[in-house]
Write a structure and sequence with these properties.
alpha+beta; 8 helices; five-stranded mixed β-barrel; 2 domains
């Protein structure tokens, strides 16, 4: 289950993010990075963030805990930036997504020693190939070091198939050629081993539980589907089909790793 909390204090916008997320305090006493449903890609970016992030957590990776965040239209009214004010108004009185804030975390880079071990690097590469995350590159590392652990953030660009539902099941078997740009591809030496280890963890029951976390109000706006349940089931089917085709994206990642040697 994913809990729902209410944002009670708008702390600061994170202006480096393209969707203008913000740090907020919620009524559970915790701080969260808030991703707004009113941002450019709307609910789809939040669905990708939630589903991919929860899959990562199930695989044993460190991903900040998610919550659903309710937003009052009065929050952040002192923010002088008109674009941010407009974003807040579009997202008010709707369910947004929050991710546990990691205070004083700093961005990972490959120059830091020691580098991630082969099993961890391979698991992260496998995960990103599975959820088709195009945003773990040298330009956008989207990994933080916090409390001596490597944390994965910003998965809103994952699952990009859902921006066009035409032939989505065929595309579930794609090799994901963008894996060649993954920031950890040179360290991913154990891809076949982690494939054998990770696939059994993502049972149909587990995948369905993750997809069932998507709020109803984020679904049902697609002409390709007659109902919210049908829309939801399409995510389940895509993810299971892609898992069945893991050998395709694993081989692509292995070839990309070899090309970096």
């Amino acid at each position: 289950m994913i809990k729902t909390v209410t944002a009670i204090r708008y702390i600061t916008p994170l202006r480096e993010g393209g969707s203008l997320p913000a740090v907020v305090e919620a009524d559970d006493g915790e701080m969260y990075v808030m991703k707004f449903v009113g941002a450019g890609q709307g609910p789809k970016a939040l669905i990708a963030e939630l589903v991919a992030g929860e899959i990562g957590r199930l695989l044993g990776l460190r991903v900040p805990e998610p919550v659903l965040l309710e937003l009052d239209h009065r929050l952040g009214r002192a923010e002088p930036n008109a674009e941010i004010q407009d974003l807040l108004q579009r997202s008010a009185n709707r369910l947004n997504l929050g991710l546990r804030y990691l205070p004083n975390a700093f961005e990972f880079n490959l120059l830091l020693k020691p580098p991630p071990k082969a099993d961890l690097a391979s698991t992260i590469v496998w995960f990103d190939a599975y959820v088709t995350n195009v945003d773990r590159t040298a330009r956008n590392v989207n990994m933080l070091l916090w409390q001596e652990g490597l944390w994965l953030i910003d998965h809103g660009a994952s699952l990009y198939f859902h921006h066009d539902w035409n032939d989505y099941l065929q595309r579930s078997r794609s090799p994901f050629k963008q894996i060649k740009d993954h920031t950890l591809i040179s360290l991913a030496t154990n891809l076949r081993e982690v494939d054998q280890m990770l696939r059994p963890r993502l049972t149909p029951e587990v995948i369905r539980e993750v997809v069932n976390m998507i709020p109803d109000e984020w679904l049902g706006q697609e002409a390709a589907f007659a109902s919210q349940p049908e829309h939801r089931e399409a995510y389940v089917t895509y993810l299971l089909n892609r898992l069945d085709a893991s050998s395709v994206f694993v081989e692509e990642a292995i070839n990309a790793h070899k090309a970096h040697q």
